[in-house]
Amino acid sequence: MNYQVFSSYDTLSAHAAQFILDYVRQKPTATICVASGETPLLTFQKIVANAKPEDFEQATFVALDEWVGIAPDNAGSCRSYIDSPLITPLGIPAERVSFFDSLADDLEAECQRVNDFIASKGGLDIIMVGIGMNGHLGLNEPGTPFDTYAHVSELEEVTASVGQKYFQSETPLTHGITVGLKHLLEAKVAIVLANGEKKKGIIQRVLEESVSEKLPASALKLHSNSYLWVDSAANPA
Ligand code: PGA
Predict the structure, then answer these.
(1) Banded pLDDT at 237 (limits 50, 70, 90)
(2) CB atoms within 10 A of CB 49
(3) Considering the entire predicted model, what is its pTM?
């Protein structure tokens, strides 16, 4: 796991955006799994601002996760957090993007559909995610086996309460549907981004603790091409 500290959220996001742009210019058919949440928003903005029209003509995006029971057009949905700032401005057509339908009657089948979609692309090239206050990646909560593909997870209390920040009014959040840690471990490149003082404690844990399923982000240490990029406010040192 390569650990790098950037002077600001802006320089962190510029670096992450340039990494994605450089990657697709090398491999135009790349499959990129991106997270929702606040962390990647500036990266998305910088990708959109700096992309040439041809950069994403063949690339595929996979949305990392979704809150179970939240409609796609809800402004707080994970889909909205990826679609509005990234997918729509880049003009990615529906056949080159995967979102979880968390309203599906059969969520196991929905997981299988996303697993099959990722497999049909030959796996993920890049997975770029934020980190939760409990060390989750996507909605892979503490205790999730590292060898799990897409699955439905039961949310910890902290995830359900922190998740309220995405919604206009109190929203019950109990379960998530998420790309799995095995997808992350099998991706060619795994990137975790963190910014802000509030992430300092969890970044310290990732740096200091040994690999354990109790700390999902520690899976990064098992990956041979992984990056933990933080801004100075999130750096515990
Ligand atoms: P955030 O969420 O980017 O909004 O901080 C990250 C996460 O919970 O995984």
Answers:
(1) confident
(2) 9
(3) 0.97
